[in-house]
Design brief:
Elements (H helix, E strand, L loop, with lengths): L6 E7 L2 E7 L5 H12 L6 E6 L5 E3 L18 E7 L22 H6 L4 H8 L8 H19 L6 E4 L7 E8 L10 E6 L9 E2 L2 E2 L8 E4 L4 E3 L12
Parallel strand pairs: 1-5
Antiparallel strand pairs: 1-2, 3-4, 3-5, 6-7, 6-12, 7-8, 8-11, 9-10
Length: 238
């Protein structure tokens, strides 16, 4: 039962952090016993230390187990640090959930549930459940192709990449789909004059054109301007 004389402290351990009320009449041995279910650290393996609101720190290891809490320099809202003295291999790690078995619902069972995100998408006709989805995708593909046609992008033409601050130039080597890259419609593969690209004309093992390593790049049509853009001569006079 709480008492007006209780001391409110913040108990901190490697796996927990909580506010607790301590009775001044408890011995340090009793305190450790009460801290065990809170921190998960056996009483015999606990090392105690306090940090007062003023910032002053004090270890309690030198005090006997029978020392009452009232004789410890504890103040309200001090920090009581509970340190685990066991070897690292013997300590429980309550924060690492990688080894915790995880339940994965079978796909067939998930698809039959009525309270899932999938069921909600079906009801709202979103994503692949939208009856107009194929038409929308086709419109996006046609829009990209219009961009290609309007810009006159064809394989073999010289080009520069946009925006103008990019300054890279090269030759268009591919116009078409690249399934390995997310996004509907055509991608433009450019063999750059300088090794400032990302690949050699291949993506994830699929080759779309040949060029030296780091000379290949794939961009969207709106980033390509075709025209008389010869290789940049760094020594050419302005």
């Amino acid at each position: 039962m709480a008492s007006p004389n209780d001391i409110t402290v913040l108990v901190i351990s490697p796996n927990s952090r909580s506010e607790r009320r301590l009775q001044p009449s408890w011995s340090l041995d009793q305190l450790r016993t009460k801290l065990e279910p809170i921190t998960g650290i056996p009483a015999s393996s606990q090392r105690l230390a306090i940090t007062l609101p003023s910032g002053q720190q004090q270890a309690l290891d030198h005090l006997s187990d029978s020392t009452p809490v009232s004789q410890v320099n504890l103040r309200d809202y001090a920090e009581l640090h509970v340190i685990d003295s066991r070897p690292a291999g013997l300590r429980e790690n309550y924060t690492d959930v990688s080894a915790v078995p995880k339940y994965e619902m079978p796909k067939d069972e998930y698809e039959t549930r009525t309270d899932s995100v999938l069921a909600w998408k079906k009801a709202q006709k979103l994503g692949r459940f939208d009856p107009n989805a194929p038409d929308i995708e086709e419109q996006k593909i046609r829009a990209v192709q219009r961009e290609v046609d309007e810009r006159g992008i064809v394989v073999g033409c010289r080009c520069r990449l946009l925006p103008e601050s990019d300054s890279r130039r090269g030759i268009v080597r591919h116009v078409g789909n690249v399934p390995e890259i997310p996004g509907l419609g055509a991608w433009i593969g450019v063999a750059l004059d300088e090794p400032t690209g990302k690949n050699d004309g291949s993506v994830n093992g699929t080759r779309y054109f040949d060029c030296p390593s780091k000379h290949g790049v794939f961009v969207r049509p709106e980033r390509v301007e075709v025209g008389d853009f010869p290789p940049v001569d760094e020594f050419e006079d302005d």
